[in-house]
Amino acid sequence: MAERITPRSEDYSRWYTDVVLQARLADYSPVKGCMVIRPNGYAIWEKIQQVLDKKFKETGHVNAYFPLFIPESFMKKEAEHVEGFAPECAVVTHGGGEELEEPLYVRPTSETIIWSMYKKWIMSYRDLPILINQWANVVRWEMRTRLFLRTTEFLWQEGHTAHATEEEAEEEARRILEIYRSFAEDYMAMPVITGQKTENEKFAGAVRTYSIEAMMQDKKALQAGTSHYLGENFARAFDVKFQDKDGQVKYVHATSWGVSTRLIGALIMTHGDDQGLIIPPRIAPTQLVIVPIWQESTRTKVLEFSERVYRQLKEKFDVKLDDRDQYKPGYKFTEWEIQGIPIRVEIGPRDVDANQVVLVRRDTREKIPVGLDRLMEEAEKLLDTIQKSLFERALKMRKENTFRVDDYREFQDVLEKGAFLESHWCGNTECELKIKEETKATIRNIPFDREEETGKCIYCGQPSTGRVVFARAY
Amino acid sequence: MAERITPRSEDYSRWYTDVVLQARLADYSPVKGCMVIRPNGYAIWEKIQQVLDKKFKETGHVNAYFPLFIPESFMKKEAEHVEGFAPECAVVTHGGGEELEEPLYVRPTSETIIWSMYKKWIMSYRDLPILINQWANVVRWEMRTRLFLRTTEFLWQEGHTAHATEEEAEEEARRILEIYRSFAEDYMAMPVITGQKTENEKFAGAVRTYSIEAMMQDKKALQAGTSHYLGENFARAFDVKFQDKDGQVKYVHATSWGVSTRLIGALIMTHGDDQGLIIPPRIAPTQLVIVPIWQESTRTKVLEFSERVYRQLKEKFDVKLDDRDQYKPGYKFTEWEIQGIPIRVEIGPRDVDANQVVLVRRDTREKIPVGLDRLMEEAEKLLDTIQKSLFERALKMRKENTFRVDDYREFQDVLEKGAFLESHWCGNTECELKIKEETKATIRNIPFDREEETGKCIYCGQPSTGRVVFARAY
Fold this sequence. Notes:
The structure is a homodimer of 474-residue chains. Chain A is globular. The first copy, chain A, is α+β, with helices and mostly antiparallel strands and 474 residues long. Chain A has 14 helices and 25 strands. Chain A has three domains: 12-271, BirA Bifunctional Protein, domain 2 (2-Layer Sandwich), CATH 3.30.930; 286-381, Rossmann fold; 402-471, 2-Layer Sandwich (Translation Initiation Factor IF3), CATH 3.30.110. The model of chain A has no long low-confidence stretch (mean pLDDT 97). In chain A, the strands form six sheets. An eleven-stranded mixed β-sheet of chain A has the order 3-7-8-14-11-10-9-22-25-21-20, sandwiched between helices. The first copy, chain A, starts with 11 loop residues before the first helix and ends with a strand. In chain A, helix 2 crosses helix 6 (166-187). The longest helix of chain A has 26 residues, at 375-400. Strand 5 of chain A pairs antiparallel with strand 5 (90-95) of chain B.
């Protein structure tokens, strides 16, 4: 706790790691590329799970669980899929003391194992749609890892749905992307750009991939969630057909979609400051923390009052009372600031006398004295205000760092300072790859809400029908 | 659905598998030894998680997540532990296309990886206790597998706590066993015997293991949860010491404890009947299912009334309305019976006229007409009654099949019919192993509440101070 957090201006990357470690969100493990998610980090993941799980269930999805292991032969059934994932898989070759006949891949994603089951479960249109989600761990071998952002093992949810028609599946993929958008914006207070990935950037095995993209404080992009229309690709690979109402036998249409513990990295890099983490109230496992300030002579009075306040707040909010004896208030302030609790409730002897508390905003550090009679409504209002204000601040940052650029030289210059660039692109993978090679910028997505506008590709000058978003990305 | 469930009297083992498959709780996967937990089964697991997670948090525990992979060298640090677990591990030898320098074991349990982290986190008595739980998948290679009961991969929770003293750790291990007991009895309606495992049956690496043991309908025992006092074993293996209040440096004391998806198997075999599953109301994802019975002329009237009943019940209960057009009521009855929904709510045109519904108990099939004005209280009362009655029935079964036996010949005869046997045992592993070899019965545990009673070991005739519980077990 006494350690210093590197200021963002000095080294953004070190700042990030300092916050993760000092807020005790995660820690390095002795297993290369794998992290430990500590209780503070896991509690945020539990909040993310609660909110998303509810939204999935409200839209008719159910949870299930499929095996961790995938036979090698299954991975190979969808050509693009194996090409994309096999090189980054962990492979089990021995089990129960013996060498296996067929190696087992630790799932990097579960399309293949799940579609091998859908083959058993789908006969008729009556069996459709299947709307299954899974909360699970997955493994993708990584050479260069960063806590939460890129680790060999991570936690995620993966939805895998089966539909009678392309139209229905497409609708599902879009519905989920909208759930991801509203979750990111309304809960995580993180503005995102929704759109379609390019051919080159889409999921290995998908027909179309949609994504939400957020700008981090260093102006790099972070892909925060993806939703795929998989067409008949996996149905064909695993021979999953159904008899339709019209008596005809057809291939099933698929979607898959996921968000992961990476979201916690996004949260840190969207809202954190040089004092540590800032958690938006709607996703905060602890929304308020009460820190009593006493001396020996005022101890009983302050603690009794604090407990009363605690019991009151607990009725409606997620609240903690930090009545630890062995630490001074100043130490506690710092600790809870690092951990990003949205509101600190200070209670000293004079506050007890005045029948009030002092609310301290984590984001602005503003201090607001509030009488006990108005505490509940003021706390609620303030949490709302913080939630909105975090979103507005992040949106403003993104707007101020997003530029329409039509000249490749300027593109390179602006990119150097960090930015989202809205530029024209001809639609060819060749230009996309050249730009990536020369600038490290990728097309984040083709925004759904882009204006129709004719222009010239920023790279080759060929005609374009609209702008796409370029950025360097995590 | 049209398939027949093998009656229990014909073949208990086939009955079990039939129920699992036809209630769509789980399915065989193409990966040897691994199962798919289907939505109906996973929903039960989610209920189990909800209840236990709440109990863990109320007693001060927090959740975290540790890596799936454990370096081979870590497994080897605790001698008994590696001997017990290494032979049943799945081993990753390749990652990212290359052979690994050190093989990684897929966790069969996480003591070693977790204690390697506790080494980093524990310095002083101020860092204790650590009360961490993890919800995770684990892998133990199995040759002969059975859905839910014994599979290569399964889901579980594993608690891992660190304490300053043996006394505290012992108290924790017992506290958790009591949580398991009350969960099994009060939620799953499954009576259990709490007690201590013998030296031979304890967890590999534990000083003492406690368990809850239940009797299944075929009179075999099922170990439904275990809690271990691990002493300083893992602290010594990973060199985890702390500076105590008195200034001295001491080893940390540990516990670990877990229950798994095996509980779903226990639930099926405690309550199911020849019609399928019976889920105790307090753990049922769906407590009531409304089945409207209409003909074309009464369709609107019955459906409107049913929706009203649905909205009313939904205020307080987990309820489903089965208004599917393509299936007849009789088909629906069977389907929901197989799935074990505690109460079916039948609504026909005459019920609408009488402003009533008919509640049908899944366990006794009793039909109870209830006026709409008394529906909420009657439904609640009936759910309570079913919950209690399931527990009583299971307890009666156990009592009727538990025998005090002092003669080894009689022991063998009684065991043949299936039973729990309360017999004297001298305390020597040798006798325990001989009995196991000759009868396949193991000592389930040494019950906490056994009477003090001197006697002679059922096998060797040496003095004994009390009875232990013998049974054949899953």
